[in-house]
Amino acid sequence: MTKNHIGRIVLLVEDYEEAYAFYHKNFGFKKLFDLTTDVGQRFLHVGTEASNAIGIWFLKAEGKEQIKQIGKQTSDQPTMVIYTNSLMELYERIKNNSAKIKTEPVITPEYKFFHCFDLYGNELVVVELPQQ
Hints:
Layout: E1 8-13, H1 16-27, E2 30-36, E3 42-47, E4 55-60, H2 63-69, E5 80-84, H3 87-96, E6 101-107, E7 112-117, E8 123-128
Parallel strand pairs: 1-4, 5-8
Antiparallel strand pairs: 2-3, 3-4, 6-7, 7-8
């Protein structure tokens, strides 16, 4: 039986190192794959796990149309959901790193979440799943 899984989401960025620094500093993401081809095309993938895990592929925007889409790839809807096992700890880290917070933490018996923006304006939903 064929098995499939999500590999990477693609985010248009202005600068690879700026984007990596934001996600590393705020979420602890590491470089999973970083290769520049002989024609100068760079493949920079970041995430939290091994290279076969879900992650982000940063793609440098080229041309006016792509540049206009940076931070707006999902038309002002959330770009991704990031799961954490410690919502308030992550919230404080992000807040202390001067990332823009859209929604303060919402904590109920069923769920915990907040919304913030990355350095380009992509909306991120941070969720702590209930303990099993």
